[in-house]
Design a protein that fits this description.
The protein is of the alpha+beta class. 20% of the residues lie in helices and 23% in strands.
Length: 284
């Protein structure tokens, strides 16, 4: 008995010691910790980006030594990385050399990961892609629209997008985030209340919302593969259009079926005129 009491006392002392130091926070599940301030986190990242000294302001200033990966690879944008100033907008960036042996047209896949521990306090790095020729002249520029896809694992979960290259002059690719992208948002079908009990008290537990875009984050970029193509093609880009109900849809699809409504005065068998015989069956 004394040995058991000794063990209990030792365990209790350990928890008391942990409660008195900052490292005890790691023992608290994320959904029970205080919610992060999304605006403060994003504003801090924006200030850090604006305070950085740009290295490049012309497409010819960038280094395009890195080959575009043959399948999407993970890149971190921010955290003291190099900053470009394009059209008066500061942005972190990636620069690639495009494969000349690839058969045209081909697709480039992108995926942005949520930046933040809580869904309702997260944001995304929304990319802008610029394809350049051998003289560093832009051939095509596009803000990539991101669409949500929730897969069975991290590889197929996130905000997906794609970009098609169909010009034989394409030699280089620059990835950054334009002013319009940084000020926008991506539709997200899941409610943040599904991720924490505290969020249920702060936000509507149903419906959908938009995840704001931010200045930094994690981005996957590379040649499209089957896994990403399936995620891109099945991703959710906007709220589904609400229908007129199952019965109305069936009436439209199967008009030959004699549909009846609860308000109809006629009986199920009009030939009986609603009369019943002694044996319970309809008759004249």
């Amino acid at each position: 008995m004394s040995r058991r009491l000794g063990r209990v006392a030792a365990v209790s002392a350990l928890f008391i010691a942990l409660a008195g130091c900052h490292t005890a926070k790691v023992l608290i599940p994320p959904n029970l910790r205080p919610a992060e301030n999304a605006t403060a986190t994003r504003d801090q990242a924006v200030k850090q980006l604006q305070a950085a000294t740009p290295c490049c302001s012309n497409f010819a200033d960038f280094s395009y030594r890195t080959m575009l990966p043959w399948q999407p690879q993970r890149f971190e944008l921010g955290g003291g990385g190099m900053v470009a100033n394009l059209d008066g907008t500061h942005s972190y960036f990636l620069a690639f050399q495009l494969p000349t042996a690839a058969k045209l047209p081909y697709r480039i896949a992108v995926k942005a990961e949520l930046h933040g521990r809580w869904l309702h306090s997260s944001y995304l790095f929304a990319p802008t892609l610029v394809v350049l020729d051998s003289g560093f002249q832009p051939i095509r520029t596009q803000d990539i629209g991101l669409c949500e896809h929730m897969g069975w694992g991290n590889e197929t979960t996130g905000a997906f997008g794609s970009f098609s290259v169909n010009d034989a002059r394409a030699r280089y690719l620059l990835v950054y985030s334009s002013a319009q992208q940084q000020a926008g948002g991506t539709y997200w079908e899941q409610s943040p209340a599904a991720f924490s009990a505290k969020a249920t008290l702060q936000m509507n537990s149903t419906g959908s919302f938009k995840v704001p875009h931010g200045p930094d984050g994690t981005l996957w970029v590379g040649m499209m593969n089957k896994t990403y193509a399936k995620a891109v093609d099945n991703a959710i880009c906007k709220k589904h259009t609400e229908g007129d109900g199952v019965l109305n849809t069936l009436r439209t699809v199967l008009p030959a079926v004699p549909w009846s409504t609860p308000g109809d005065k006629k009986a199920d068998h009009p030939a009986t005129n609603g009369k019943r015989t002694d044996d319970g069956s309809g008759g004249p």
